[in-house]
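Tutorial sheet, problem 5. The two components below are modelled jointly, 689 residues in total.
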Amino acid sequence: MSVADFVTRRRGRRWHWTDIAAYSYLALGVVLMFGPVLWLVLSSFKTQAALLEFPPSLLPMTQEEVMVPGQGDKPLPLFKVTMDDGSVRTLAQVRRVGIQAQMVDPKDPGTVIRVPIERREPVRKFQLALENYTKPLQQFAFTRYLANSVFVTVVATLITLISNSMAAYALSIYEFRGRNAAMLAVIGTLMIPITIILVPVYMVVASLGMVNSLWAVILPGAATPTGVFLLRQYMLTLPRDLIEAARMDKASEWQIYWRIVMPLSLPALAVLAIFSIMWRWNEFLWPLAVLTKTESYTLQIGLNAFQGELQVQWHYLLAMTVVTLAPVALVFVFLQRFITTGIANTGMK
Amino acid sequence: MSGKAASGGIGDRFGGVLSAPYTLIMKVLDIPMRAVQNAIGERRMPYVFLLPNFLLFGLFVFLPLILNVGYSLTGGSKLYLSERPFVGLGQYATLLDCTNHLQPSTCREDHFWRGVYNTITFVVLQVVFMVLFSLLTAVVLNMKIRGRGFFRAVYFFPVLLSPVVVALIWKWILQREGLLNGAITTLGGEKILFFVEPGWAMFWAVFVSIWAHMGFYTLILLAGLQAIPADIYEAAEMDGTKKWRAFHRLTLPLLMPNLIVVIVLSLIKGVQTFDEVFVLTGGGPGTATLLVVQYIYETAFSNQVQNFGLAGAASVMLGVVLFALTLLQLFFARKGEKPT
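Model answer (structure tokens):
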């Protein structure tokens, strides 16, 4: 066996050109899918000045600064300067005039040295601009948006779980007149997205006096047809004799629902809860239409408002985008399997 | 769904923290529910269980569906339907009023028609490339590769990101002094103003929505591929069938039901696209990436004069298109179920 053969052998099978093509495609995929998110996270740690650099540097780097006595009370940026004799000195820049920079040695602040600007090279160090994260959390309405989003997500998910499981329970455990019609209505609702009933839902919400309240975001989407469908399919598989036995023991229908059927449906409820959290956290068009006051904005609407401003404050915007993304990323890392099997089972997202 | 739960007390099924309030609330609710059951009898209880969900359905889906038609037949700028004057099919006439339907600039509601044509362009491009790339990715992920779970996750995770986050990530990369232009100038090229040139704006709108949703469709196709029994490939290999021929003659026909699901679903979702494109380009430059849903949103909510009637008429028309697409899906689903 030659060396080349040995190197290209792979678990008893030789490398085919399709294997190489496949791994190259996947590698490209990793760069293209992960790269942008990584870039966002890296950029979010850059200072405002570093964000303005072009072409941008990969890591969050900032120019080193130093306080020089007798040169004002602001720190001065540090440069490495190649002198006329070829030696390199570290100097602080006092001001720049055209193509000339006036610089001083921090150790000898008295003498000003004039240097052509192309001779200097900024001294840079790695630094995370954590204030991008802390400042918006303190000053801006951002904490409010965060709280609003959490409230909407939690309350809407609870309502969804209760109302959907009750409906699914009725549609799976009982035989009753109108059951097929009710099932048809659920499936029909599946096909009516908010995009085509935006105006009349707004009117309903307005007549209930809920415009600009978070309930306007929570209630219209709370009774998800997807959830009823998913839970019903699961409850249909539950053993009937368990329910009959409970009836014999004089359990009320409500007790059968919450003591027997709900605990047994926990895997399906978990899938629905995850879906609902994602839907609510990410929802955009409807909140955009119904929330017009900044104090009722959710994160998504808040982010959109920030990016639409005349002077976009990218250093804050990027950090806030990372904060918005973080819970989703956590959910994904821990519950990936749940989500993918859930999608595979329902064909919905 | 993973294994069925074994029976067990509620305490060890729900987390300890959640179980106490859950039990308390449900026990309190048992008092009125038992009274209701005694009053109407056990056989009518399912209606009670259906009530909350159908109340919400009725208020926020069925009623609006009817009201929407009402809006499309009335004019004025009042929100409440009772205060709006009846105009018959006037709103539809306004929307459809064009000297030449192929040229949006000759239409009375030129933005609507630009939205229609942009949406058609967007959807056609998006569906074609979505199917192409998700099929390619699914086929690659279905090969005997190491770290398949990891790679699958890589392609899937953007599906979970919010449209606003997706749009902001790409906006940051594509802006004038962004990463991509940095790479282009480093390689000696000229900066491209991606959001100023209409062609580029549409390209990135399509690209970003494929980036965000490809994982979902890949998952559907991957499930289909994994359902194809391996022995038919072995048989084909023994007959000396070439790989490409096996893909063409075996894989594609067997994957057809899943492919149709992907095509129709991406069509339905594509027609409704709003979020990513709205945040990414704002519909611009000019109206180059203005889509129909954005037209509806702006006509009803963000324009100076809120024209609910016109938005209503446009959304009824959008609804009809979506309904037709759904019928198409049902038709193909039926066809797929029949053994051939």
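Marking note: DSSP finds 14 helices and no strands in chain B. Full credit if you identified this.
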